C-alpha cells in the first residue's frame, strides 16, 4: 500500500478539477502513454519510481465531475481492493487525489489488447474459452460471495497479463447487496447492451447473480465468434435492434464446427431469457464448463473461489473431498534452506508444501511482480505451483533406507568399507551389465515407455458417441420431509446402468453448492437430521467419467 494519503477529500484543496485535462501530475510517477478512455474516466500508463514498475492509472475526467461520480469511483476502488488478491481480478494498489483535484486509482498493469480486441482479430480456441470461462466464473463467484455483483461483464473488461492469464476489471457500476436478490440500487446504471441480460434492458432488474451469469455466458460466446451473440453481420446492430433481439430471439449457435453441442447448450442455458432457468450461480456455471472440458479430454481448469473463512477453495472436475484444497490467501512462499545430501550422495527430496490443519496446503499463483525489478519473491521458481499441480507421490520402495548403526561382526574391510559391501557391489555390476545388454539387443521401437507421473485421472470411454445427450442434461431433484429425515430423489433423461451421482449437501443452498460431493450409485439419498433442520442438495450425473450440469439446489425441512 502506498504511503500516500487515502483520506484526502477530492477537490477539497487545490485547483478546480473541472479545468483539468490530460494525464495528471502524480508524485513519484512518470507518465508514459494513454491506454484508453471511457465515459467518465481515462486510463494512462505510468512508471512508478519505487518500487519500479509499470502501473495503470485510472483518473476521473475533470469535466462533468459530480459527487455521485466521486462516490462511485471510491466504491470501485473499495470493491476491487476487497477482491484484489484473487488471481483473476485486477489488483488495485491504492487510490488518491492528484494535485489538480481529480481522483485516481493505481492498478496492476495489463498490456493490451483486452480479450474483446483479441477475439475481434481472431476468435479464441474452444480450450481457451473453456479455461477462461472457468477462471472468470471463479472471480465472479468470489465477488458474489462478498455481496457484490459486477453488472458489466463483457470482453473489453477482461484483461490478460504477461502470463496469458485473464483478469476481470472495471467494477465501476458494481452493486452491493444480497447476492441472491436484486441489488437495491435505485439510480440509473450503465448498461453495455450487447452483453446485458434482457431483464436489465427491460428495467425489471438492476442486475443480480443471474444477470452476471448471463453476461459471462454472452462474453464466452463472443470470444468464440468474434462478435456479441445478437449482433447480425450487415444487420441492424443499433442499441434498439440489439435490445429487440436480446429480448425476443433465441440464443443463436456459434456456427463453429469444433464447438461441441454440450458447450452450445451450456451457453444457451447461461443466456436463457428466464433467469430462473440459468445456472443458479457462477460456480454452477463453472462446473458446467468443466464438464465440457472432461468430455473433450482437456486438462481440467481449477475453480478458485474464496470461501466463508477467507481462504480459497480449489475445486476440479471429479474432485473428491481430498481434492478440495484450501489455499491461504495471501500467502508468502519462503526461501527453502539448502538441501542436504543423502547417504547415497544424491540430494534429498525437498520438503513438501507446508500443510496446515485439515489438509490445508499453502499455495500461491505466481503471476504478479513482487520485487523492484519485476522478479519473483525468493523461494520457488515461477510456475512451480501451477494450478494443476498435484502432490508428488513417492514409491516407498524407492526411498533409500535411513542410515543404520553398523552391525556387530567382523571389522570393516580396507579403507573402512563394511565387509558386505564388496559382494553387493559386484552383484549390482552384474545386474547392470544384464540390463545394458537387453537394451542393446532389443529391436528398435520395442523400448518400454517410461512410467507416467502418478496423477488423478477420470476414465473416459473409448467410444464417446455412447455418452448420449442425457449426461449433459441437469437432473431434476425432489425433496421430501419425514420424521427426523430429509430424502432426495432425482430423475434425468436416458438413465443407463452404471450411472453414478455426485451429491452436494448442506444446510443452505450456498453451503450445498460449496460442499464436498458424496458419490452414490442410486438416484436417492436420505439425510438423518434433527426435527426442524433444513437440508439442501444439488446433484450431478456421472457417466463414463463425464459429469453432467448440476441440478437446481433443492431444500426441505425435516418434520
TrEMBL record:
Entry-linked Gene3D superfamilies: Phosphorylase Kinase, domain 1, Transferase(Phosphotransferase) domain 1
The keyword Transmembrane is assigned to this record: yes
Bias kind Basic residues: ranges: 1-11
PROSITE patterns for the chain: PROTEIN_KINASE_ATP, PROTEIN_KINASE_DOM, PROTEIN_KINASE_ST
Transmembrane intervals: 420-441
Pfam families reported for this sequence: Pkinase (PF00069)
Region of interest (Disordered), ranges: 1-33, 300-392
PANTHER family linked to this entry: MITOGEN-ACTIVATED PROTEIN KINASE KINASE KINASE 20-RELATED, SERINE_THREONINE-PROTEIN KINASE NEKL-3
Protein name: non-specific serine/threonine protein kinase
Organism of origin: Lapillicoccus jejuensis
High-level lineage: Bacteria, Bacillati, Actinomycetota, Actinomycetes, Micrococcales
Amino acid at each position: 500500500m502506498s504511503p500516500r494519503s487515502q483520506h484526502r477529500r477530492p477537490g477539497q484543496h487545490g485547483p478546480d478539477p473541472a479545468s483539468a485535462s490530460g494525464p495528471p501530475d502524480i508524485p513519484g510517477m512518470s507518465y508514459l502513454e494513454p491506454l484508453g478512455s471511457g465515459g467518465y474516466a481515462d486510463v494512462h500508463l505510468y512508471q512508478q519510481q519505487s518500487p519500479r514498475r509499470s502501473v495503470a492509472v485510472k483518473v476521473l475526467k475533470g469535466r462533468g465531475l459530480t459527487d455521485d461520480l466521486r462516490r462511485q469511483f471510491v466504491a470501485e476502488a473499495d470493491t476491487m481492493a476487497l477482491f484484489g488478491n484473487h488471481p483473476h481480478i485486477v489488483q488495485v494498489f491504492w487510490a488518491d487525489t492528484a494535485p489538480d483535484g481529480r481522483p485516481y486509482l493505481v492498478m496492476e498493469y495489463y498490456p493490451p489488447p483486452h480479450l474483446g480486441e483479441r477475439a475481434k482479430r481472431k476468435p479464441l480456441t474452444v480450450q481457451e474459452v473453456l479455461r477462461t470461462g472457468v477462471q472468470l466464473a471463479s472471480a465472479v463467484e468470489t465477488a458474489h460471495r462478498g455481496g457484490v455483483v459486477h453488472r458489466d461483464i463483457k470482453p473489453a473488461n477482461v484483461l490478460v497479463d504477461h502470463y496469458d492469464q485473464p483478469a476481470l476489471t472495471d467494477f465501476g457500476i458494481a452493486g452491493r447487496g444480497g447476492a441472491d436478490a436484486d441489488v437495491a440500487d435505485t439510480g440509473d446504471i450503465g448498461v453495455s447492451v450487447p452483453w446485458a441480460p434482457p431483464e436489465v434492458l427491460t428495467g425489471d432488474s438492476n442486475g443480480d447473480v443471474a444477470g452476471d451469469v448471463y453476461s459471462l455466458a454472452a462474453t464466452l460466446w463472443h470470444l468464440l465468434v468474434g462478435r456479441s451473440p445478437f449482433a447480425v453481420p450487415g444487420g441492424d446492430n443499433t442499441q434498439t435492434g440489439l435490445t429487440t433481439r436480446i429480448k425476443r430471439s433465441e440464443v443463436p449457435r456459434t456456427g463453429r464446427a469444433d464447438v461441441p453441442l454440450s458447450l452450445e447448450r451450456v451457453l444457451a442455458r447461461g443466456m436463457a431469457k428466464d433467469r430462473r432457468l440459468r445456472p443458479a450461480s457462477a460456480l454452477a456455471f463453472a462446473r458446467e464448463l468443466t464438464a465440457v472440458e472432461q468430455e473433450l479430454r482437456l486438462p481440467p481448469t481449477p475453480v478458485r473461489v474464496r470461501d466463508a473463512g477467507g481462504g480459497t477453495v480449489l475445486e476440479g472436475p471429479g474432485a473428491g473431498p481430498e481434492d478440495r484444497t484450501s489455499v491461504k490467501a495471501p500467502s508468502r512462499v519462503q526461501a527453502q534452506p539448502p538441501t542436504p545430501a543423502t547417504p547415497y550422495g544424491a540430494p534429498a527430496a525437498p520438503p513438501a508444501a507446508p500443510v496446515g490443519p485439515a489438509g490445508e496446503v499453502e499455495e500461491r499463483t505466481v503471476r504478479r511482480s513482487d520485487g523492484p525489478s519485476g522478479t519473483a519473491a525468493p523461494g520457488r521458481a515461477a510456475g512451480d505451483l501451477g494450478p494443476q499441480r498435484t502432490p508428488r507421490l513417492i514409491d516407498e520402495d524407492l526411498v533409500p533406507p535411513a542410515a543404520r548403526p553398523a552391525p556387530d561382526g567382523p571389522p570393516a574391510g580396507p579403507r573402512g568399507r563394511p565387509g558386505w559391501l564388496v559382494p553387493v557391489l559386484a552383484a549390482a555390476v552384474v545386474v547392470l551389465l544384464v540390463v545394458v545388454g537387453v537394451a542393446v539387443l532389443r529391436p528398435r521401437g520395442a523400448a518400454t515407455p517410461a512410467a507416467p507421473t502418478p496423477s488423478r485421472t477420470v476414465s473416459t470411454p473409448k467410444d464417446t458417441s455412447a455418452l448420449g445427450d442425457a449426461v449433459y442434461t441437469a437432473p431434476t431433484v425432489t425433496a421430501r420431509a419425514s420424521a427426523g429425515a430429509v430424502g432426495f430423489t432425482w430423475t434425468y433423461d436416458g438413465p443407463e446402468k452404471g450411472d453414478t451421482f455426485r451429491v452436494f449437501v448442506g444446510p443452505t443452498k450456498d453451503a450445498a453448492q460449496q460442499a464436498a460431493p458424496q458419490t452414490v450409485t442410486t438416484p436417492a439419498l436420505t439425510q438423518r437430521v434433527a426435527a426442524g433442520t433444513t437440508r439442501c442438495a444439488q446433484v450431478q450425473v456421472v457417466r463414463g467419467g463425464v459429469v453432467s450440469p448440476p441440478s437446481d439446489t433443492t431444500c426441505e425441512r425435516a418434520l
